[in-house]
Design a protein that fits this description.
Blueprint lengths: L1 E2 L7 E5 L4 H10 L7 E4 L5 H12 L3 E6 L2 E5 L9 E3 L4 H11 L5 E5 L10 H7 L5 E4 L11 E4 L7 E6 L4 H11 L5 E8 L2 H11 L6 E4 L2 E4 L9 E4 L4 H11 L4 E5 L12 H7 L4 E4 L4 E4 L8 E3 L7 H9 L5 E4 L11 H11 L3 E5 L3 E5 L6 E3 L5 H11 L6 E3 L12 H6 L2
Helix pairs in contact: 1-2, 1-6, 3-5, 5-6, 7-9, 9-11, 10-11
């Protein structure tokens, strides 16, 4: 892809398709429901397609009412799949292991592309004390990679003590698996990184019945008999991409992003609090669930991405156009992603003219920067490709990006057409 500032519209109105993070949570919850569930405003990215295919392999019926609406119904099979393909989604894998092993005692897990390079030692360490045993096809003592097999049933306990200092996604899977059985339980986390994403899971579970009460790192689960009623959910747009568009919107005459709410349960909506702290002016249209902003100047900021690492690209765009330096802490949370994003995101930013210093391997200082042209390697990482695209839209020179197809992992490519002339 070749892109530059001359392609950017000066007035943008865009309707965001649903957040894959929300969609995947809803889909996994439907494994425990036989009633009909409708999800609207679906974003059929690759990760969501992988989740849909897993549901089908479990016996669920998936019907498409239209391109962005699906209906899920039916019960899971008595004979569950022995092998589960998670595509490129680490979120799906980490959530699914505790769910699957509350239903059966063995499973082989596979994936594709960057997922095959990632270390899942944290998942193994977290769930082994709960009765699961692991065996990897790849013999490496320091890295636990796909494909791997898991044996055993997840132990049924009154109290679970979990250490989740590297990833919270398995905790979300444990919450889902415990919420729809017959045994009340309590999950206590001695440490819990990205806690807002677990709160998001709890809030979505509670849409299916008031099941979980939670406070800080403790979750009290009181399962209820499923209410077999038709449910219909409209999925809010994705805030991590919405934040990037809003940051870009501060450089043009007008930008309206629809299907985002100011008080969203999505952790990445915290980006709007940063607007408030910086006195960045915006409007909230409650009728259309949209956020509107426009060209303006603003100072640099300090932000910690420990709990919201997917906001890193949006924060880099925001920092580049500020009128004073910005500090982003917690970048060590970027290392075990599709790539080591602490490296690939900063490399992309610097290669396009960005001014960035790394401090103590956990902090970026980003200075106001004028982007210029260049060639960018996406490393098959959708966040890297997105950052390059958005920085390219601020460059007077052409930015050439290889393999932009990787953004389909999380997003439908149609959003980009709304930004371009």
């Amino acid at each position: 892809m070749k892109i530059s500032k001359k392609l950017l519209k000066n007035n943008i109105t865009i309707s965001m398709l649903g957040s894959k993070s929300l969609i995947i949570r809803h889909l996994l919850i439907t494994l425990f429901h036989s009633n009909e569930i409708i999800l609207r405003n679906i974003q059929l990215c690759d990760d969501v397609r992988a989740a849909i295919n897993i549901l089908k392999s479990f016996g669920k019926t998936i019907n498409f009412n239209n391109e962005n609406t699906i209906k899920i119904s039916g019960q899971i099979n008595n004979q569950l799949p022995e092998e589960i393909y998670c595509g490129e989604s680490a979120t799906l894998l980490r959530m699914l292991v505790p769910i699957n092993h509350s239903l059966q005692n063995k499973g082989r897990y596979t994936g594709d592309k960057t997922l095959l390079n990632r270390d899942f030692g944290d998942l193994k360490d977290m769930l082994t004390p709960l009765g699961l045993q692991y065996s990897s096809d790849i013999s490496q003592c320091d890295i636990f990679k796909l494909p791997f097999s898991v044996f055993g049933y997840l132990s049924s306990q009154d109290n679970y003590d979990i250490k989740a200092d590297k990833s919270s996604q398995a905790v979300s899977g444990l919450l889902i698996s415990r919420s729809f059985n017959n045994t009340p339980s309590k999950i206590s986390c001695s440490s819990l990184v990205s806690a807002p994403y677990v709160y998001l899971t709890a809030n979505i579970i509670n849409m299916y019945g008031k099941i979980i009460e939670f406070n800080d790192k403790t979750f009290i689960i009181t399962p209820q008999k499923p209410i077999e009623l038709y449910k219909d959910f409209f999925i809010e747009g994705d805030w991590s991409l919405g934040a990037m568009i809003l940051a870009l919107g501060l450089t043009i005459d007008n930008c309206e992003v629809k299907n985002l709410t100011a008080h969203s349960p999505q952790p990445d909506s915290k980006f709007l609090e940063l607007f408030d702290n910086l006195s960045i002016r915006y409007q909230v249209n409650e009728k259309y669930k949209s956020i509107i902003t426009h060209r303006q100047s603003y100072p640099g900021y300090t932000y910690d991405i420990t709990d919201t690492p997917d906001l890193a690209p949006a924060l880099m765009i925001l920092a580049a156009n500020a009128n004073s330096p910005s500090i982003i802490n917690g970048i060590c949370r970027l290392t075990n992603k599709e790539t080591n994003r602490a490296s690939t995101l900063s490399e992309t930013f610097i290669n396009l003219g960005g001014k960035l210093d790394v401090i103590n391997d956990n902090t970026w200082i980003i200075y106001p920067s004028q982007m210029h042209g260049g060639k960018i390697h996406s490393h098959n990482d959708h966040r890297v490709a997105l950052l390059a695209i958005f920085l390219g839209l601020q460059s007077n020179e052409i930015v050439e990006i290889d393999d932009c197809e990787c953004i389909k992992k999380s997003y439908s490519a149609q959003f980009l057409k709304k930004l371009l002339k």
